[in-house]
Specification:
Largest sheet: 6 strands, parallel
Oligomer: single chain
Number of domains: 1
Number of strands: 11
CATH architecture: Alpha-Beta Barrel
Low-confidence stretches: none
Helix content: 40-55%
CATH topology: TIM Barrel
Bound molecules: alpha-D-allopyranose, manganese (II) ion
Length: about 425
């Protein structure tokens, strides 16, 4: 798209919005400020239990992962942080990693611990970690999380995300109540090992890798445990961690109502934890989630700045960098559209029981093409007008393959 055409579309949109007393300059600056963290494990091609198809040129170590995120930050201006996964991303030279991150303009978002794989630790996590019936295994898993906190402290992170794969595949395999109690006790030890300016983001997931039960299967269980840990423990909502047709926007509203929302792992899904590109399947749901976020923060239910924003996706057939460019764009668009909702009119419709009117208010915002606003926010911040076109025209993947090799493979998921 030519810059002239962009300016024409922007001017037309600004005029339309001005008629509704919406200041597009203000919108553009809000969009420009909204930054989403990128997961270190999303820079490489993902895989399923049926196989993995390497994309070539993938980052082979933490330094190259940061390089890729630095490029995303430069061309999209939608991300300014990375979320690391330990032990996949243990920094060999902390100072060098910190310097590289500063030079790329990226910080360190929440750290992710890993007690769902065996990677040479003395005791296996096959039968559970923080919920294991074996106290020595629980102790080892707690120690691992405390080590992750130490790594995070050295890098300037201020959060620990705990996702537990713990659960069972068959009835009778695990004592439900004991597993829940052991998990809570283990998390209490981890929580007390966190600095006072850190938060614990406790993630839930209904199934996978366990298929009969997961110790923390839903937002309610996560909230139940967080309440027992302390006020800096809150619920992390991974969009792919819900059974089909779950009303996620209602969960977000309920958690905000209790000031219990830690943040998001953005992705999209059709059936399960598919880790598809955010906004690629259910863009309306993503918009409705942002409507709750904007409404909840405006009403004082929970402060916008207290919420963490992160992508968590895994790309089996897309170029990971292109997927992340698309995801960052989709999140920004959903946010921009939600900012357009006439909340005063919506409240009036709700009070009057005007169902059709309420839908009209929401869909007037959702059906507005906000791409010119998001593009302008990017241009004003020094990014590329069209990041995907730039990535392709500059043949960045080809250059990465030339530099790192055809079968370079990222560590991790
Ligand atoms: C997997 C899990 C969960 C976790 C992520 C990183 O389902 O979403 O946050 O790995 O550990 O996707
Ligand atoms: Mn997740
Ligand atoms: Mn997941």
């Amino acid at each position: 798209m030519s810059i002239q055409f962009h300016e024409k579309t922007l001017a037309l949109l600004a005029e339309q919005l001005a008629e509704k007393a919406i200041d597009s300059t203000q919108l553009i600056s809000k969009i420009a400020q909204f930054q989403i963290a990128v997961p270190s494990w999303a820079l490489g091609a993902g895989g399923t239990r049926f196989g993995r198809f390497s994309i070539g040129g993938e980052p082979r170590n933490l330094e190259e992962k940061l390089e890729d995120i630095g490029l995303l930050a430069k061309i999209t201006k939608r991300t300014d942080a990375v979320s690391l996964h330990i032990p996949w991303d243990i920094p060999q030279d902390v100072e060098a990693v910190k310097q590289q991150a500063v030079s790329l303009g990226i910080g360190f978002d929440a750290m992710n611990s890993n007690t769902f794989q065996d990677y040479g630790q003395p005791l296996s996590y096959k039968m559970g970690s923080l919920s294991s019936a074996d106290s020595a295994t629980r102790k080892q898993a707690i120690e691992h999380n405390l080590q992750v906190i130490e790594v995070g402290k050295s890098l300037g992170s201020k959060g620990l995300t705990v996702w537990l794969a713990d659960g069972s595949n068959f009835p009778g395999q695990v004592h439900f109540r004991k597993a829940l109690q052991w998990t809570t006790e283990s998390l209490k030890k981890i929580y007390s090992g966190m600095p006072s300016n850190w938060k614990l983001l406790l993630e839930y997931k209904p199934y996978e890798p366990n298929f009969y039960h997961t110790v923390i299967p839903d937002w309610g269980t996560s909230a139940l445990i967080c309440r027992q840990l302390g006020e800096r423990a809150k619920v992390l909502v991974d969009l792919g961690h819900h059974l089909p047709n779950t009303n996620i926007e209602q969960i977000v509203a309920t958690l905000m109502h209790q000031n219990m929302l830690a943040g998001f792992h953005f992705n999209d899904s059709k059936y399960g934890d598919d880790d598809l590109s955010t906004g690629s399947i259910k863009p309306y749901q993503l918009f409705l989630i942002f409507c709750e976020l904007i409404g909840g923060s405006a009403d004082g239910a929970q402060a916008w700045d207290s919420i963490s924003w992160m992508i968590d996706a895994s790309h089996n057939v897309k170029d990971p960098m292109e997927d992340l460019i698309q995801a960052l764009e989709a999140i920004s668009q959903a946010y921009a559209k939600a900012l357009l909702v006439d909340r005063k009119k919506l409240t009036q419709c709700q009070n009057d029981g005007d169902v059709v009117g309420a839908q009209e208010v929401l869909q007037a915002a959702f059906l507005t093409d906000v791409r010119a606003l998001v593009r302008e926010a990017r241009i004003q911040s020094g990014g590329e007008a069209e990041p995907l076109a730039f990535y392709r025209n500059e043949k960045i993947r080809e250059k990465l393959i030339a530099k790192r090799g055809k079968n370079a493979q990222a560590s991790g998921l």
